[in-house]
Records
---
Amino acid sequence: MALRPAVDVLPAGAGRVHLVVALRAEAQPIIEHLRLSPVDRGAPFRVFLSVDERVALAISGSGRVAAGSAVAHLAGYGDDAGWLNVGIAGHGHRPLGSVVLAHRIRNRNGGRTWYPPLVFEPPCPTATVQTVDRACTDFPTDDVYDMEAAGFYGAAARYASHELVHCLKVISDNRDHSAARLTRKRVGELVGNNMTVIHRLVEALAALSSEKRCRRVEPVGLEAILGATHFTVTQQRQLRRALRRWSVLCPGTDPAPWTTAFRDTNARAMLQRIEAHLDRQAPAFGNPR
Amino acid sequence: MIDTIYIEDGLDTDPRAARLLRRFPDATVVHCAHYAEVFNPAAQDFRLQKRRPALILAHKAGRHVLEAPAGFGIGGERNFYFSHMLNCLYDCRYCFLQGMFRSAHYVLFVNFEDFQVAIDQTLARHPGEDCYFFSGYDCDSLALESLTGFAAEFVPFFAVRPNALLELRTKSVAVRSLLQQEAVPNVVVAYSFTPAPVAAAVEHGAPDVTSRIEALSKLAAAGWPLGIRLDPLLWYEGWRQGYDLLIQQLAAAIPAAALHSVSVGPLRFPRHMFQRIESMYPSELSLAGPLQQRGGVTSYSEQREAELTTYVSKRMHDAFPEVGVFSCTPTAT
């Protein structure tokens, strides 16, 4: 049995997606489709992980608080992940099995509203999702009603920028079909029939996550220079920034041999030398036309 | 072009908002109580939102006209700005908007009439004085003209207020509507430029330098007062030749008599904005140059800034000797 990763094990720049699903029946088709394996059995939430550890799924249990808690648990699996809540929901008249991505999420009890920015083309129609504490049966508005989205979104937006946090809802009940008649098998079918949409969303979020993680890739030479000389935390930050500039202004050259060749005895002198060198490099945009 | 429109509750019946909703019948329309609910939350990623910005239709409350920052001007004593829009169609890597706003969505304030009332109130507070109004501070004045109809509304408004001057600051070449009407002597159409290699590398989505010069030339022929804004000035390999060539092209295309003003301003950011932009674009060449922290501002060294400003100002003065060349100070953002 694999254990929860203590450190970020993904390759630099690889996208990561965290899914939060309330019920095992909802999660099962996703677990099978994405070939996820159980990990972390002693933890408060059942967690499943892909072989490459880019996709993690937690089964939260029903309700806002549970969904938010599962987000906090999954957040320990790595930074800059895309976040997706998948689950069943009700609507007055949308057909059973239809699927919507939330473009607005309202917490009916807390009053807070979120607007997930749709920076990719949505793979399905979008709608307002209202999160309620008890299953809705009268559907007083044209919104989709669920029990987790607000708890999930409010928590996940603490760990990722809003573009990376989304909620997908599969309609399981409406005025003509009560949620009371739902079976586990039926719930699994409703989610499983929308795996194409779920898969596209996971890929879109992985791409966004990858872009965010690429921005934080450590620059060439950092490890070698830090290994050779003691830098304070502040100096490490300054060095990281300087070496990022180096990679842009002096592409294709490794700063480590250049820097260590001067045999500076301390980090401050080394930083000053690198900065002075970089300040002499004029950005080259090409020849004037 | 616009896939999602956020609209403040109650604005559906506003004629300007309704026209825009009709213009994009396939767009997803999402209602919000106030535009800030969508635009202002923390933890938004400007760079990611630039992939697919939404349009936010809003009603501007509070102060509609503000005093321009010290050092921001083109020769007037009384300088003001107003923003019918927040954010820009283009994606220029040096733009301070990407550090100022958390969201890249376009906010359009549809209550133009309230801006006009505020402009009149401002003029009334300064009787007998010339007041300059800048409309391209938080957006490009013309880039989304086909959507906003901003110039179509405000050019005639300023035309009958001769002691007011409107600057339309832009990189857009969509000037047909201006060319179809009589030039207005107190409306200056001001184009921003960087040398062509820089523009090609960092002004994503903006018309190229040649197209902008062609637009200026047409506007000059139609009698519009023009502005040239060499702002920001960028230090790069071959910058002297780059600016020389740009100024030669401008001088060849634009008669000096058509020029109202020239302004130059070095690259500068409030420090916190620069940090935010740099973290979004850690591999951006234009931000990797020799920028320093000076007070609360990130800019080139004083010496380098002076070298750039003096050189380019002199070249512009040589090319257009009769035209005022104004310098924007580093504190102007």
Note: Residues 195-214 of chain A form the longest helix (20 residues).
---
Amino acid sequence: MLYAVISGFVAAALLPLLHRFMGERSSLVAALVPLALTAWFASCFSSVVSGEALVSRMLWVPEVHLELAFRLDGLSLLFALMISGIGTLVILYTSAYLRGNAYEHQFVVATLMFMASMLGVVLSDNLILLFIFWELTSFTSYLLIGFDHEKEESRKAALQALLVTGLGGLFMLGGLILLGQAAGSFSLTEIIRLGGMLVGHADYPVIVGLILVGAFTKSAQTPFHFWLPNAMQAPTPASAYLHSSTMVKAGVYLLARLSPALGGTETWIGWLTVVGVLTLLTGALMASAQVYLKRLLAYTTVAALGFMVMLLGIGSASAVQAAVVFLMAHACYKASLFLVAGIITHETGETDVRRLGGLARFMPVAGACAVVAALSMAGLPLSFGFVAKELVYASVLDRFLTIVPVILASLMFILVAFQVGIKPFFLGAWQLSGKPHEAPPAMLLGPIILGLACLAGGLFPQAFAGALAASAVAAISGSPVSDLNLHAWHGFTPELAASALTFLLGVAAVFATGYWVRVGNAMKPLAEFGPDRAYFAKLKGLNLLAVWQTRVLQSGSLRRYVAIIVMAMVSLFVLSALRSGVVPVLTRNTPLNLPVLILGLLIMLAAVGTIIATSRICAVAALGVVGFSVSLIYVLHGAPDLAMTQLIVEALGAVLLVFAFLHLPSFHDRKRWIGRFQDAVVAILGGLVMTVMTLMANDIQLAPSIAQYFAETSVLLGHGRNIVNVILVDFRGLDTMGEITVLAIAGTSALALLRLRIPSKGKS
Amino acid sequence: MGSLILRKAARYLFPIIMLFSIYLLLRGHNEPGGGFVGGLAAASAFILNQLAFDLQSTKKLMNVESLTLIGVGLLTAMVSSVFTMLDGHPYFSSHWATIRITPEWHLAIGTPLIFDLGVYLVVLGVTLAILLSISNFRKSSS
């Protein structure tokens, strides 16, 4: 299963290479990866639905409870099939949708990476691992939303999505760590096995609060819903994939996953239900005022996510069933509608619903797919959406506080389904210029297959979805698998009456579309106070703060930088010395011999020489004496490696100064005594602290020395007689890795800064 | 700069310093040396060339951008230990292979050497990136 998750990342890494050889056809090859994954997950189907979870685990970093542990149970399988299945269709779709775009393969790379991360989220059996993949989905979502990076709105929307979900992710990390500590294990299986034990834990409210923030930001719940409609800046395949069918459901997944461990309490039920209901109301109301295809769909997605969160909050057996079936139905019809909306825009260049009409003549196949998906979204009989909606109604009918918002949102679904799926194709006539064509087969395949799924789920729900849904419900409720008995037709029940009422209201709403839009427009000023505004205000504040602190700290004067660094070191040392009460005392004297003594005197003389030098070249030369003498001391003390390095660094340092001479400010600038006095204070304090620290370091031994160990094992384990080097590249290889990474970053930044100056100088 | 003596000397010194830097890199495991100092030595060879000639000739001598050196070096160091992970060992476990050349003479080659090569490249790249762009900076602004 580890390989199943990694394969997406590997494919993403290899794709640019493939693209070089195959050009645009490489995306078709890329689609094979999710296809193979779908096949693999499908092959696990029978064993998983019989209640047997697949597990694979491998130690990664056991010290921080990080384990590459994956587990495939009913819930995971449901998501995994959605992710890889829709992933296949979306990549195929992309190959046609972005044909001719020079960055098309980069889009596919990001999509593959997203798919792998998302699979990681739903398969992880370790909290930390789950978090890592969770963040990776935010990151890839950022890349996909900002794909059109030349447009400012895209960049803004991408950043907004990243910041909102990233912030939520941080909250969630806190929650997950607390959860792991409370449960005594970071394994999800273990935590779920504890059942309701965690509910009584002292940290329970904090854990739930933090995790909910994470899940709510990811799943665009009010008041964090605003990033999702803005994320519609992404190319349509990404919207269909990430922002309707999979990524935004990661929060729902997490809530479902943790239900057996954390659910059932008043806190849980209260928060989930209230936020869910608020979200579906927000989504439904905001959808009413939209006229653009993708925004209409986006706000109904917000409402649908509210549905799922609310149902999980209610948590009764029927509500959980409804949530699972609704999730499946929603993924099918919403992805399909997004893809159809993409087709419309791709072929006509138009996104405004008001100006679209009569397209069925030009694109009959797309139209048929749109109708099927729209019927499912509207929840009309014989569609998957109907089965799901009946279940939803059945689980909320007895609660007045939930039934009203649910009916309201459902009628909005009808309205939007009409506007996106029916009106552009069947109403009115084609009025715009140009003659649109049917979309290419690669783009139609997705809507067709998803449309068939909508139909299959509506006609034969038990055969199509029964087993998988039952096994997912079992995973959420923590009880053994029991049959769901989904029916295409439930008979005449109270739910059906509610559905009929919704339908009538929906039809009325369709006729009153113009009125809705007016109501929505009238409410638009309210959006001024919405969370979107608050977000931008905060972002602006943060930027101002950054500008202010940069101006204060980053003066650009090298002398001041050095002073700040040295003084920070001095004050840290003094503070910690005061706090620990350690008085530096010398107990051990290193014997001085004559050569070292002479070198020491030389160094001191040269240092004085550097200070009193009258020209810069003299100062550099004197400083060179200091450096070379120090490296000689290394030689005398038996550290040839250090000496060698120091020698070359000295030489290169001198060259660097020579290169930089012309750009340094005049040497006589700082001859004023006040400046020199300040410099002297900084230098003397710095030198003093360094000396004391060195002497103390020689004196204090907190842990037994490991020098002996290194000396003994260097040849044995490291195959080397130069202990210093063996430590550097083998024993402490990770430290060195960190060091060269810092070095690389420093070098790259220096390069960037220096290049930045050149053109402006060149012009002047 | 640009003195005849320096130019003549640089031409002969460059290969010698480069060879020496590789020698330093390879001997590092048993004698004083290693990737860090080797990289610095190699950088000084290029800097010598830069002092004697000009940026164009140094760039030609380098053949690759210093940024590429940094990236390749970092990647080499990182990847050097990935393969041991596939065996289930923790990251940065070293692996060694012993090649027998003659019955008494055998050579142990291990992943730390690849890692050290990465260090060598990063150090070389960073040093050159900073020094060369500062020397170039002077040219374009004066």
Note: The beta strands of chain A are 54-61, 66-72.
---
Amino acid sequence: MKRLVSCKEAAKAAAEALEHDLPLYRRFALGFHLLICAGCRRYRRQVMGLNRLVRRYVRESNQPVVELDAATRQRFVERLRQAAGTPAGGTPSSGSTGAPGGTSGPP
Amino acid sequence: MDGKPDVRSDPATWVDAHGAALLAYAMPRVRDQQTAEDLVQETFLAALQAANFRGDAQERTWLIGILRNKICDHFRRLARERAQPGGDAIDVVEDSQFAPHMGSDGWAKGPAKWIVDDEALIANREFWEVFHACLGGLPSRQAAAFVLRMMEDVDAERVCQDLDITATNLWVMLHRARCRLRACLEERWFTI
């Protein structure tokens, strides 16, 4: 059957439809194309599925899954202590390099 | 107005309370561990300097807010640095998906059948590693558009400003990003 738009255009329109309302003629052309083209139907389903997955992934992986490894933690802390300008004399954290040390370490 | 002396005298308490969570927030959004750690570090530093430090239950939310800005800045910077004059005209991967067929551009090799189980994929670390590898393979402006719009949920208008493009350009860019991601995932995950 003769197609109104190519698969390339249909794929583009299907993706664009996720972003904004297509003008009527493009919506019509896409709808008609999808009716007769299994490849583009599948493409559209996959792209929409990916969208859905990514949104969920971003939302749900927003939880602490792992603890910081010791080296990373140490780097963060050192840099912050520097920036906080812990007073040079009579420091609360005696700067022994290796140990997490300081006032109250983790349990 | 002495904010939170315990944090200022020992930032370790802060790092222990929020470090892992912030890193877990940053990791899915940026591509690699090093960048994620740098952004978390910048977040802590910015927070330290902020006057309106609260130190209550809202603290995490507040820090995440700072981190989000850092992540967005990171992608804006990337997109600006890699701007190619007139270089967004065509996309080779998009083009390679299609081939002339009966006088119009048909699929060169139609999309393969995928078996998609949302629940299983969400929990599958390996899948997301592949996803990140694919995301990392996008041209950086496409990646920036995709992350800002799809992952950070930034307004389309704002993303256009950040990348200095029109809405039409943004749609094309997102379409190409999706096209590439889809093809990459198909090759590296769904058809193995």
Note: The helical segments of chain A are 7-16, 24-36, 38-60, 70-84.
